[in-house]
Specification:
Layout: E1 3-7, H1 12-23, E2 28-32, H2 40-50, H3 63-68, H4 76-85, E3 94-97, E4 100-103, H5 107-115
Parallel strand pairs: 1-2
Antiparallel strand pairs: 1-3, 3-4
């Protein structure tokens, strides 16, 4: 089963998740989503795999969100477009395994996810 980590090397939680995947000897792909942003279609597919709302994967304490987006209410599609155009707003790390995914900030939850 294919495993992909959406990774930001400047994020400690993301580096820890990557290290966990490496320590388990798993075959996985690393996607540097800041350099290779997700398309709107990929974000929609990701939301299905995560089984969450788009609001759940937006980093609303990022300066770019507070400065440009916090004063307006957006539709589901608008939020997907914003995420596609501003990948820094995407929660991280996200680990995808087959047709499921998890925001892997908690290593214990990531371990459970990988062993399921």
């Amino acid at each position: 089963m294919k495993i992909v980590i959406l990774h930001n090397n400047r994020c400690g939680k993301s580096r820890a998740a990557l290290q966990l995947l490496e320590s388990k000897g798993l075959d996985f792909e690393t996607r540097l989503y800041l350099e290779n942003p997700l398309s709107e279609t990929e974000i929609k597919e990701l939301l299905e795999k995560l089984d969450v709302s788009v609001n759940d994967i937006i980093r609303k304490n990022e300066e770019i969100w507070r400065e440009f987006f916090s004063d307006t209410t957006y539709s589901h599609q608008d939020l997907i477009t914003i995420l596609s155009n501003h990948p820094k707003l995407l929660q991280r790390p996200i680990v995808i395994k087959g047709n499921k995914a998890i925001v892997a900030r908690d290593l214990e939850k990531l371990e459970q996810f990988l062993s399921a």
